[in-house]
Amino acid sequence: MDITEEGWRLQLGANIVPGSGVFFRVWAPKAETVSVRILSNNKKRDIRLGKEDQGYFAGLVEGVCRGDRYVYVLDNMDHYPDPASRFQPEGVQGPSEVIDPDEFLWEDEEWESIALRDFIIYELHVGAFTVDGTFEAIIPHLDSVKELGITAIELMPAAQFPGKRNWGYDGVYPYAPQNNYRGPEGLKRLVNAAHKKGLCVILDVVYNHLGPEGNYLHRYAPYFTDRYKTPWGDAVNFDGPYSDGVRHFFISNALYWISEYHVDALRLDAVHGILDFGSRHFLSELREAVKIHAKRSGKNVFVIAESDLNDVRIINPPGMGGYGLDAQWNDDFHHSLHALLTGERKGYYEDFGKVEHLAKAFREGFVYSGEYSAFRKRRHGSTSMDSPASQFVVFSQSHDQVGNRMLGDRLSQTQSFEKLKLAAGVVFLSPYVPQVFMGEEYAEIAPFHYFIDHSDDALVQAIREGRKKEFASFGWEGDPPDPAALRTFSDSKLAGDLRNQGNHKILFEFYQELIRLRREIASLRTLNKETMEVVSFEEDKVLFLRRWYNGDEAFSLFHFGEDIARIGLIIPEGRWDRILESSSSRWGGDKNYAPEKIDSHGPKVTISCCPHGVVLYRLCRRT
Amino acid sequence: MDITEEGWRLQLGANIVPGSGVFFRVWAPKAETVSVRILSNNKKRDIRLGKEDQGYFAGLVEGVCRGDRYVYVLDNMDHYPDPASRFQPEGVQGPSEVIDPDEFLWEDEEWESIALRDFIIYELHVGAFTVDGTFEAIIPHLDSVKELGITAIELMPAAQFPGKRNWGYDGVYPYAPQNNYRGPEGLKRLVNAAHKKGLCVILDVVYNHLGPEGNYLHRYAPYFTDRYKTPWGDAVNFDGPYSDGVRHFFISNALYWISEYHVDALRLDAVHGILDFGSRHFLSELREAVKIHAKRSGKNVFVIAESDLNDVRIINPPGMGGYGLDAQWNDDFHHSLHALLTGERKGYYEDFGKVEHLAKAFREGFVYSGEYSAFRKRRHGSTSMDSPASQFVVFSQSHDQVGNRMLGDRLSQTQSFEKLKLAAGVVFLSPYVPQVFMGEEYAEIAPFHYFIDHSDDALVQAIREGRKKEFASFGWEGDPPDPAALRTFSDSKLAGDLRNQGNHKILFEFYQELIRLRREIASLRTLNKETMEVVSFEEDKVLFLRRWYNGDEAFSLFHFGEDIARIGLIIPEGRWDRILESSSSRWGGDKNYAPEKIDSHGPKVTISCCPHGVVLYRLCRRT
Predict the structure, then answer these.
(1) Whose CB has fewer CB within 10 Å in chain B, the N or C terminal residue?
(2) ipTM
(3) B381, A319: Cβ pair inside 8 Å?
(4) CATH superfamily membership of A13-97
(5) Do domains B13-97 and B531-622 have the same CATH topology?
(6) How much is the pTM?
(7) Is position B269 annotated as part of the catalytic site?
């Protein structure tokens, strides 16, 4: 089965053949026989599938149509839902449903994704973003997201997981949009609406493991291997015997979201959990398939990795031996910023805390590029000095960085208003692709907890204990909210309406302003590490950033200290206008240390910066 | 500890400080205290070592000198030999001995290794090569090896293993030359003698696992990880917490053999067992350290991998994302040749058997470059089309390919004399670095068995069963010789004297002639896949190979069939001299189907080739 062929369509699962019935195909290399059991109108009938090469079973079944439900029967014994099920109407334990992918009336024919360098990402959790917690319930909020200046929404994983609430990383049907999010129809409506409003859609997909409940893939085939361990148990079998079928399953999944759901980019969860020692890394093959597919369909499609490896091989082009992914999250940027903002030094924050860490993140990308990491107890990372800035996604908060805190506390719950503006300034004035976590832009007060809805009590208990242990490594003691409690989930829903009140409103506008400046000013818009000067003033806790592009020039100061900082700077001669100061009354502050204009005649000017302030100047006239 | 510093010397183990005593250093990051226990003159004294950074313990101890024995005491409890012991006079369970690396009087100051492309390798097992089974006992045989045309001898692993006989892959003291091979002094004498005779020395080193008996490294530090499994148990910890110390230990080992023993090249055992998911692969770091060290000492040093991955990343230069190793064994070449010669199709030979397989091995290197392998049940390999020919070591027999057969049978024991010559022709007329397994060159009749001398009965039993199971996958039934029996080892010793008798003598001279031709004829000497034409005649079971270089031109036919082959060839016009025919009376044959001269006037000439014959023509005059 060639996944790079013209006019690619899903070759697995249940596919309607107009006028004939449904063509089923499933990979079960260890089965002698496979039948599909059709469940419709309270009748059930088993139809034996034919054996194809390489362990696939397939067959056209007449008299089946959209909405019919089915399972596969292996070796005339047990039956399980379809690994490539497009819909699990009754959840992970129920039968699969035949879906007609051509039924939905798309209205985004004109849609074309913007370039990755223009992405301004808004990460959201479908269940917690709205009261209803469905795909469609998001649609009315797209205007507000757009108003903020966002260009791409990113959905946390939406593949069918056990129960009604979950971050999504416990998904077990990678092709089936979550039933209580309202399944395939709901997701298509959301993507369609987003595209009509000019928003890209990024989908978080999980290829490094499957959830612990409702996962029957191992009954079908060697999807997993015990040769490698991941933090989530046995690794997915990407390089052992039968791995071709496993790779095909996941690569098809990527193409499926792109072709049937029109998503513009995939965010690959934790690629460090994709353990492939083979000569052709799965990520490299995945990226190539996506690229060919995108090219054939005339679309821009991006693949963005979450990676804990600090390894540029992930994003390097194939000619340099890389896997060619478009971008990756830069956790080092977050950690540098978070450690400076909060003073936290436990867990992985042990490796951060200096202004110079953040400075290196600005200059290069990875802060750890081969240096010894006390947290990891080994040297870590390769240099990203030569990697284009558009290959890094940066943020001050994310689902992990909030939700994996014991109390799920956002920065807004523990840090001053001034620091929230400072954090935003660092992210949006950086030369990287910025990302916001839902609610961050107006200082949402609801926490974002970790929540699950498993039916296995022992599993729930293990998860509770595992998390408590992890929290201890950060020095957090006490009892975290129970992940399995409904309340833990409902508490995590956005309060929302805050956005129009007091400092919440001001913060939203401050975000808007930063995004507007970034969009309109050439030196801020360009994602270029080469046209940039970064100086760290460790004593003063100030980071100086100067950027230029095509004659345009701007500089910022980010001040992490409690006192007033007076910084002597060498900047090009000329008149500089202050175009943003976070401590000014416009942004809810009452102080204003920085002058509105500077005349630099060289060699040095001194600028004062208020505590936790960010200030931005732009060159208006050279002298 | 910087392993790339000028004038590198071993920083681990016991190092004599002239006039002061001995400086001990050991890595034990989990110990609170470490003492060195000096055992001399029936006295013992414990001296506590100081704690250094990163878990090292070190200290200068007075009154200790060469020949003194010692162990380390961890946390005032158990004591173990030194992981970096230079010598284990009483074997794996005894104390370590202080060795003076400067004591030996080297006589190879003028020695300089030849280029890798000129390597003609002779692989030998120290114990089985001679009656005595010591390093020094090899020396009297170097003349005969040299006479054959060999330029480099390769020693199977010589690091201290349990017992008195072992292939060497169960070594547990990577720095200590085997005691019953006669330790450090013996190995130095061998290298010294080889260099004086103009022979390079390659040492087989094992960095992917340690043997199962006498291994106390895990008592000192997290040398191993249970995150990955290898065929030999837990993997070495190359990428987890504390892996810096593990990497330092093995990289130091490579530099140690080069600097203290003057070895010219290392053969890295089974690099597919070096499981490193970090951003800087161990092999890449190893290669760089060796390169820097070699450059500083003005030597040529090579690193050659054994790899089951068919992954060019191992040998690609760093700029292409490779690890930069100089060369690797090409098992595909062996398997193609072996399957054609023997007709075997079980085990990994399932993937081979066509002339075209061997043709691809000639053209590219790897036969499996992404194709589906029935044996592996997955696609396998990356293309080596662009890899220089000098990066591949090829052979018709090796310790593995003989010794891992149930009866340890060499080709000479199962195949006709004609086929032995054919096999040699394929290897030496190829554009790759050729390798011979001891005794192969004169059709040695002794088998080469797998042998061990462990003291743990359960372990021995497990090994017996493991091997039997593996043999079954090749369709070999019955009882293999007992690996633990002394006789299994003694049977494997070379009979040797055969070399001057009948066909044994002729085969030796045939090997000599092939090596001479390869050395003297420009088109055969060049390791270049680009100046080469390879055509497979599948029906006729003939491989045609034409090579040219700098005006010189030659072609060969390799015939794997039982019948006389008549092959129509298109060759450049001119007069061609037959310079070698394996079936001629000169080489013990009685038939002679090929003409001594060919006048090619185009477009096609027809040449007959005798069964299992190899014939070589050289262009003497163009027309």
Answers:
(1) C
(2) 0.94
(3) no
(4) Immunoglobulins (2.60.40.10)
(5) yes
(6) 0.96
(7) yes
